[in-house]
Here is the input.
Amino acid sequence: MILKDYSHFFNQDIIAFSTLKNNRVSSEKTLSESLEKYNINKIASCNQTHSNNVLFVDSKGIYDNSDGLITTIESNVFLQIQTADCVPIYMCDFEKGLIGLIHSGWKGTYNQIIKNAVNLFFEMGSLDCNIQIFLGPSIHECCYEIKDDVAIFFADKYLTLKEEKIYLNLQSKIVDDLLNLNIKAENIKKIKDCTFHNNDFYSYRRDKNSGRIYSILGFINE
Here is the structure.
């Protein structure tokens, strides 16, 4: 299985990556077996209904009515989400031993899933200065065409009008939401790859009946 590794963005004992398009994964079981070299045997995932719900978990399983999960280093659980244009948000606080993985499309972003995730970190003792964020592969402003019924939910600064079409900069909105929660700008990193443009990744907008990008986040098991 070919993976896109993002661990270096955190500079700590973390495993963070996503799968690539030419390695379609059909199930969590297949994914887990394929990643045996990382000693991953406990995966927690959510069923992703474009909600703003973020849950704390400490055991493996599929969690209903959620689009984000948070866990601790003690749980030895790896977090997993699936995307195909939406933004996967990787969150870490090494001081508190916390990680989070969030699925944020336009609807979840508008309904403040980022705020809910960060506030859950705060509730568990995190300081804003210690939370590190990485925005994984997603569709970018160049390709994220939306209609008026979605555009009305976003400020003009996140919208671009080009050839009578409206395009949304969802990454910029997410970054602003994080900054408004006092997350430090230097602790927010993002990948430049647009899923629509880059054929290494699945894109629902480009391929319609596409596969999914699996994002994984967890602490290294010694």
